[in-house]
C-alpha cells in the first residue's frame, strides 16, 4: 500500500463518529415489501420518515428485485434531496455563527480565582459528528491547526507564561479526570509505550504538546510541534507502575532526550510534578483497558509515590523516531505473565477532500494515526481558527450536499429510464401473448433487451411450472373426487345389501314367529280337543255310574 507523507497533502479530516450510512432505511422498505404491505402504505411510511434516504445504484437494483415500486423508490430519493437541502441551509447558519464567535478568555497564573462560569466554546454549534480539521494547501500547518481541530471538544484560554491552552469539555463533567488515565490504555509498539485513546481528539492532545494543571481550569493542554507515542514521566516499584503527564517546561531534543527548564534531566530528578498528578496502578493491572477502575485512590497516591522511584532515560531518538521506553517491556512481561506483541505505528495519509472517520485507527497489530508535521507559531488566534474551521466544515457539507443532489438527480433519471424500459417490456410481452409467439431480436449490442428476454423466459418457465403444478393438483383433486365417489357407491351398495339382509332376516324371523305361533295354536287346539274328549269321556262315565278316579296322592 502506497503511503505518502501526511502533511504533504491538503485534506479535510472528519473526526468523530455519527456519520449516516448510505443504506439507512433500505432494509426497512425491503421488509415492508416482503411482508406484502401495499405501495400506498410504503409511500406514507417514506414521506413521514425522518431518514435521509440515499440508496446507491446497487441498492436501487436490490429494491427493484424485491418488488418495490418505482414510485416508492423515487419518493425515497426525493426525501433524501430534501434532507440535503436542509443540511445546506443549516451550513449557512453555521457560517453566520462563526463570524460572531466570542473571544478567548484570558487567565494568568497567580491571579485570584474567578467565579465558576461556563467557559467559552468557539464552536458550540458544531456537533462532534460534523467536526472537521482543515489542512491548508500544501500541507503548511502551524499551531493554529490545533485551535480549529480541537474547538469542537473544548475551549481555548490564554494563560500567562504559556499562551493559549486548551481545556477539554470532559474535565467539566468528570471531576477526577486527568490526562493519560481515562478512556485509554498503554500499548507496546515499535515506538515504545503508546497511549491509545478512545477520545476523538486524543491523536493531538496525547501525542503533541504538554499538560498543565491550572488552579482554576484544572488540566489544560499546551500545544506542541513534536509528535511522540506519549509524553509522560514514569515511576515504578515492586507493586505499582505509575505515570504523569510531562509539564510544559519539559522539552525533547533529538540526541539529547528530555530537558527540564534550562538544563538536562539528571538521574532521579523529577519535573516538579505533584504526587496527585500521577496515575498508579498495581503491576498486574498495567495492561488493562480501564485504568480508572484499578488506579490507586487519590487519598493513597502520596504514600505510593513515596515508595516508588523514577524511571530514567525513557525517551530516545532512534531512526527518526521518538521512542518512549518507559517501564522495560521485559519487566512488564515477567510481572504480568502476558504475551506482549509489538504493534506497528504507521502514519495516516489522505488526499484532499477525503473523509476519515477517525484520526487514530487500530487494526490488529497496527495503529494508524494522523500525525502531521507542525511548525512553531500561529497564523490565527483561536477564535479566528475556529471560525475558519467551521467555514471549512460548512463548505465541505455544502459540497457534499451538492454532490448528493446531483447524484440523486442522476439516479432519478436512471429510474425514469428503467420505468420507460419496463413499460416497453410490458407492451412487448402483451404483443407476444396476442401473437402467441416469442419473437426474439438478434441485435447483440442491446444487452438490456436480451436480459429482459431472459427474464421473460424465466417468468414463462415459472408460469409453466405453476400451470403444470395446477394441472397436477387438478388431476389429484379429480382422482380424489372419483375415489370418494367410488367409496360412496360402495358404501351405498353395502348399505343396500345390509338393508336387504336385515329385511330378509326380519322376514325369516317373522315367518318363524308365525310358524311357532301356528304350532302353539295347533297344540292349544289339540289340548282343547283332548280336554273336550276327556270331558266327554268323564260325562259318559258319569252317566254309566262309574266313579271318577282322580289322579294324585291322597292326603
Question: Which short descriptors sum up this protein?
Answer:
alpha+beta; three-stranded mixed sheet; four-stranded antiparallel sheet; 555 residues
Care to describe what's here?
- The protein is α+β, with helices and mostly antiparallel strands.
- It has a domain of 134 residues.
- Strands 15-11-10-16 form a 4-stranded antiparallel β-sheet, covered by helices on one side. A 3-stranded mixed β-sheet has the order 2-4-5.
- β10 and β11 form a beta hairpin.
- α1 packs parallel to α3 and α2 runs parallel beside α4.
- The protein starts with 11 loop residues before the first strand and ends in an 11-residue tail after the last helix.
- The N terminus is likely disordered.
Distance between the termini: 145 Å
Unreliable residue stretches: 1-22, 94-134
* Gross geometry: elongated
The largest sheet is: 4 strands, antiparallel
Total number of strands:
21
Task: Map the helices and strands.
Layout: E1 12-14, H1 26-34, H2 39-48, H3 57-66, H4 70-99, E2 105-107, E3 132-134, H5 144-149, E4 154-159, E5 163-168, H6 170-173, E6 184-189, E7 192-197, H7 202-205, E8 210-214, E9 218-222, E10 232-236, E11 240-245, E12 250-253, E13 257-260, E14 263-264, E15 279-282, H8 298-306, E16 309-310, E17 315-318, E18 321-324, H9 329-336, E19 344-347, E20 360-363, E21 366-369, H10 382-435, H11 447-544
Parallel strand pairs: 2-4, 19-21
Antiparallel strand pairs: 1-3, 4-5, 6-7, 8-9, 10-11, 10-16, 11-15, 12-13, 13-14, 17-18, 20-21
Helix pairs in contact: 1-3, 2-4, 4-10
Amino acid at each position: 500500500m502506497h503511503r505518502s507523507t501526511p502533511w504533504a497533502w491538503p485534506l479535510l479530516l472528519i473526526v468523530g463518529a455519527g456519520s449516516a450510512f448510505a443504506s439507512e432505511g433500505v432494509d426497512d422498505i425491503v421488509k415492508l415489501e416482503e411482508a406484502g404491505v401495499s405501495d400506498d402504505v410504503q409511500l406514507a411510511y417514506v414521506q413521514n420518515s425522518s431518514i435521509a434516504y440515499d440508496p446507491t445504484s446497487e441498492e436501487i437494483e436490490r429494491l427493484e428485485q424485491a418488488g418495490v415500486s418505482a414510485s416508492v423508490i423515487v419518493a425515497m430519493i426525493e426525501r433524501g434531496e430534501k434532507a440535503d437541502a436542509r443540511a445546506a441551509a443549516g451550513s449557512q447558519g453555521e457560517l453566520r455563527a462563526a463570524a460572531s464567535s466570542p473571544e478567548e478568555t484570558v487567565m494568568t497564573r497567580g491571579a485570584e480565582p474567578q467565579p465558576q462560569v461556563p467557559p467559552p466554546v468557539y464552536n458550540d454549534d458544531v456537533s462532534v459528528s460534523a467536526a472537521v480539521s482543515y489542512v491548508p494547501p500544501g500541507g503548511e500547518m502551524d499551531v493554529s491547526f490545533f485551535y480549529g481541530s480541537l474547538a469542537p471538544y473544548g475551549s481555548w484560554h490564554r494563560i500567562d507564561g504559556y499562551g493559549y491552552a486548551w481545556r477539554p469539555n470532559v474535565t467539566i463533567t468528570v471531576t477526577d479526570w486527568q490526562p493519560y488515565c481515562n478512556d485509554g490504555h498503554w500499548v507496546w509498539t515499535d515506538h515504545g509505550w503508546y497511549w491509545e485513546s478512545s477520545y476523538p481528539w486524543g491523536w493531538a492532545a496525547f501525542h503533541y504538546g504538554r499538560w498543565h494543571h491550572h488552579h482554576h481550569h484544572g488540566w489544560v493542554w499546551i500545544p506542541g510541534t513534536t509528535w511522540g507515542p506519549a509524553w509522560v514521566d514514569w515511576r515504578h516499584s515492586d507493586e505499582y507502575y505509575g505515570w504523569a503527564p510531562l509539564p510544559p517546561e519539559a522539552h525533547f531534543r533529538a540526541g539529547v532526550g528530555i530537558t527540564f527548564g534550562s538544563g538536562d534531566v539528571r538521574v532521579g530528578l523529577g519535573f516538579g510534578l505533584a504526587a496527585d498528578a500521577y496515575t498508579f496502578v498495581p503491576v498486574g493491572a498495567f495492561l488493562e483497558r480501564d485504568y480508572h477502575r484499578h488506579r490507586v485512590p487519590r487519598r493513597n497516591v502520596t504514600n505510593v509515590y513515596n515508595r516508588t522511584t523514577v524511571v530514567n532515560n525513557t525517551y530516545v531518538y532512534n531512526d527518526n523516531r521518538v521512542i518512549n521506553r518507559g517501564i522495560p517491556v521485559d519487566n512488564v512481561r515477567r510481572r504480568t505473565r502476558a504475551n506482549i506483541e509489538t504493534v506497528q505505528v504507521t502514519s495516516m495519509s489522505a488526499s484532499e477532500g477525503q473523509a476519515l472517520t477517525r484520526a487514530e485507527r487500530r487494526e490488529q497489530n497496527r495503529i494508524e494515526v494522523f500525525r502531521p508535521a507542525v511548525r512553531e507559531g500561529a497564523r490565527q488566534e483561536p477564535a479566528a481558527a475556529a471560525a475558519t474551521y467551521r467555514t471549512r466544515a460548512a463548505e465541505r457539507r455544502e459540497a457534499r450536499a451538492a454532490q448528493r443532489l446531483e447524484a440523486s438527480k442522476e439516479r432519478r433519471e436512471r429510474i425514469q429510464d428503467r420505468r420507460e424500459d419496463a413499460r416497453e417490456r410490458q407492451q412487448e410481452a402483451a404483443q407476444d401473448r396476442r401473437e402467441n409467439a416469442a419473437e426474439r431480436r438478434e441485435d447483440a449490442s442491446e444487452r438490456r433487451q436480451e436480459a429482459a428476454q431472459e427474464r421473460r423466459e424465466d417468468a414463462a418457465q415459472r408460469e409453466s411450472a405453476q400451470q403444470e403444478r395446477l394441472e397436477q393438483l387438478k388431476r389429484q383433486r379429480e382422482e380424489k373426487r372419483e375415489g370418494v365417489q367410488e367409496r360412496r357407491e360402495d358404501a351405498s351398495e353395502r348399505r343396500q345389501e345390509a338393508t336387504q339382509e336385515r329385511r330378509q332376516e326380519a322376514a325369516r324371523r317373522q315367518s318363524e314367529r308365525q310358524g311357532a305361533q301356528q304350532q302353539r295354536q295347533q297344540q292349544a287346539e289339540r289340548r282343547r280337543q283332548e280336554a273336550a274328549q276327556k270331558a266327554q269321556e268323564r260325562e259318559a262315565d258319569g252317566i254309566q255310574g262309574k266313579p271318577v278316579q282322580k289322579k294324585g296322592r291322597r292326603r
